[in-house]
Amino acid sequence: MNLRQYSTIVKSLMSIKKTLSKLNKELTPYNCQLIAVSKTKPASDILEAYNCGQRNFGENKAQELVKKYETLPKDIKWHMIGHLQTNKVKYIAPFIHLIHAVDSEKLLTTIDNEAKKNDRKINCLLQLHIGDEETKFGMNEDELVSVLDKVNSGQFENVNITGLMGMATNTYDKKQIKREFKGLKNLLEELKIKYSSEHLQLKELSIGMSGDYNLALKEGSTMVRIGSSIFGERSYP
């Protein structure tokens, strides 16, 4: 390693520490949890954030998540934040802390089955489609209510539904983003009144990423998923 490479690494690590400090100061008044999105990032970056006190990290690919789980400290709380295929659930079921993007009853059924095999209950958020883009995943409200009815009746014994997750439209229109976040927050409050059971405690609202987390905080987010602001742009092979 030459001096220039070493200098770049040191600068990057200092930036991670500084950004985490800034974000935590912003989030504390809102009692909002920071999920540091570490997808495509090396273990060295994650360890730097870990050494700064960060414990919650988000990944969007099961294979990458498993590799990082195997090599990094075991007190890290891993969050699956991306679209999860049913055939990948078995790989993360033994250790995952929270699955954010449960976007279908089929996926929830698979998670429940894999959780049972591992003798544990897996925390999940149900993803609602709130943006304009058809490419984004998520249930509609009718599908969401149908799943919640079944969870409330005890059909899924090995999952805990702890809240909702949503991804706003990718737009510069702040009013639209705010409207989408507010709509999901209002829905969550309505569902809290309607549902309450051992496996259904709706308290979390996972909205907001690097570009819109400030809007999400004002609309009641309890978890923001931030990656590029902490670690820089994604790294690809």
Protein architecture, described:
It is a single chain. The protein is globular and about 50 Å long. It has 237 residues and is α/β, with parallel strands linked by helices. The longest helix has 25 residues, at 3-27. The chain contains 9 helices and 8 strands. Strands 7-6-5-4-3-2-1-8 form an 8-stranded parallel beta sheet.
Task: Itemize the secondary structure elements and their pairings.
Layout: H1 3-27, E1 33-37, H2 43-51, E2 56-59, H3 62-71, E3 77-80, H4 89-92, E4 98-102, H5 105-117, E5 122-127, H6 141-152, E6 159-165, H7 174-194, E7 200-206, H8 213-218, E8 223-226, H9 228-231
Parallel strand pairs: 1-2, 1-8, 2-3, 3-4, 4-5, 5-6, 6-7
Task: Tell me briefly what this model is.
With 237 residues, the chain is α/β, with parallel strands linked by helices.
Q: Per CATH, what is the topology?
A: TIM Barrel
Counting DSSP E segments of at least 2 residues, the number of strands comes to 8
> What structural category characterises the helix and strand content?
alpha/beta
- Number of helical stretches of at least 4 residues: 9
User: What's the level 1 CATH class?
Assistant: Alpha Beta
How many separate domains?
A: 1
User: Low-confidence parts lasting 5 or more residues at pLDDT below 50?
Assistant: 1-11
Global Rg: 18 Å
Order of helices and strands: HEHEHEHEHEHEHEHEH
Shape: globular
Q: Helix share of residues? A: 40-55%
Q: What fraction of residues sit in β-strands?
A: 15-25%
CATH architecture, please? Alpha-Beta Barrel
Q: For this structure, what is the CATH homologous superfamily?
A: Alanine racemase
User: For the terminal residues, how far apart are their CA atoms?
Assistant: 20 Å
Largest sheet: 8 strands, parallel
Strand order of the largest sheet: 7-6-5-4-3-2-1-8
Mean pLDDT, rounded to whole units?
A: 90
